[in-house]
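Journal club prep — side note

Before the paper discussion, L.F. wants everyone to see what a predicted structure for a comparable chain looks like in token form. Sequence:
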Amino acid sequence: MAKIDSVWFCRLGDPKILTAQFHGEGFDRGYASAGKTSLTVYSVPSASRPLVEQSLTHIVIPKLIKWIEEIDRSCETLRDSHKLFVAEWSNDTVLISMKSF
């Protein structure tokens, strides 16, 4: 399993509820976080908490684990670039996006 470099807990990230960033090995050679993932978990309004918690447990976390495992299994060329996983809460629905940069 890929290494987790840090976990941050932040105030309202509306609409973000969770982000994960893989720090590319190619761009950050020598940097302590190279080849590791950092997570940021955002607080949500109290009224949204039960639904967000359920979505995190049943949708977001399983997809995040799969995303980390895919990076871990990927070839060195794919691990060279930064990657971002974003879970957002909008209209009582979780939206997940993933990109490389």
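L.F.'s comment for the group: The first strand starts at residue 3 and ends at 10. Keep this in mind when we get to the figures.
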